[in-house]
Amino acid sequence: MKLKLPEGTFQAYLFDCDGTIADSMPLHYVAWRTILGEWGCEFDEELFYSLGGMPVREIIALLNQRHGLEMPVEEIARRKEGMYYELLPQLKAVPEVLEHIDEAYGKVPFAVVSGSTRHSVIASLSALNLLEKFDTLVCAGDYKQSKPHPEGFLLAAERLGVPPEQCLVFEDTEMGIQAAQAAGMASVKVPLPWERV
């Protein structure tokens, strides 16, 4: 299946990482289920995918609120990330996105805009041998407002020196697409794992 890009020429490509470049969402879900299971915390797969792009600590706070739990946010975040790193050898790239990275690399600058930590993004891109292709990484902690707010995308465009309207965003979540639209950027929706079969 080939991704259909919007019409026009773009001066920069901005990519979400998890679920967009890296087919990591299934691995993140296994990590979440394993760690949250120790607290008897349910995390439905549909809810997990709907929160794609939300920073880990915000997800834990939301689950605490939703389930009336008091899970220690920092500890759960650290252990969930650790579990994800253990699963990294299984990581694969999303082929439809990799095709566009290979085609456009060296022609336009690339940025990653992710709700994940810088450490997690670097680990994922390194596991896929793609890290050196990206000119800048905008990760959790680099911005104050997470997706669907456009701050992360606007920061990436500024770092690349490209006007927002000349950037193309690759995203797998609705929150990410909304953030791209709010930034005045064109976007392409990357199908979720079960939509790519």
User: What number of domains?
Assistant: 2
Summarize the main sheet: 5 strands, parallel
Main sheet: which strands, in order across? Answer: 3-2-1-4-5
Low-confidence stretches: none
Judging by the overall fold, what is the CATH architecture of the largest domain?
Answer: 3-Layer(aba) Sandwich
Report, as a whole number of angstroms, the end-to-end distance: 9 Å
Q: Could you name the CATH homologous superfamily of the largest domain?
A: HAD superfamily/HAD-like
Radius of gyration: 16 Å
Secondary structural class: alpha/beta
Helix content: 40-55%
The overall average pLDDT, rounded, is 95
What would your notes on this structure say?
The chain has 197 residues and is α/β, with parallel strands linked by helices. The chain folds into two domains: 12-24 and 92-195, HAD superfamily/HAD-like (Rossmann fold, 3-Layer(aba) Sandwich); 25-89, Orthogonal Bundle (DNA polymerase, domain 1), CATH 1.10.150. The chain is built from eight helices and five strands. It has helices at 25-37, 45-50, 56-67, 73-87, 95-104, 118-127, 151-160, 174-182, and strands at residues 12-15, 110-113, 136-138, 167-171, 186-189. It has a five-stranded parallel β-sheet with strand order 3-2-1-4-5, with helices on one face. Helix 1 (25-37) crosses helix 4 and helix 3 (56-67) crosses helix 4 (73-87). The model has no long low-confidence stretch (mean pLDDT 95).
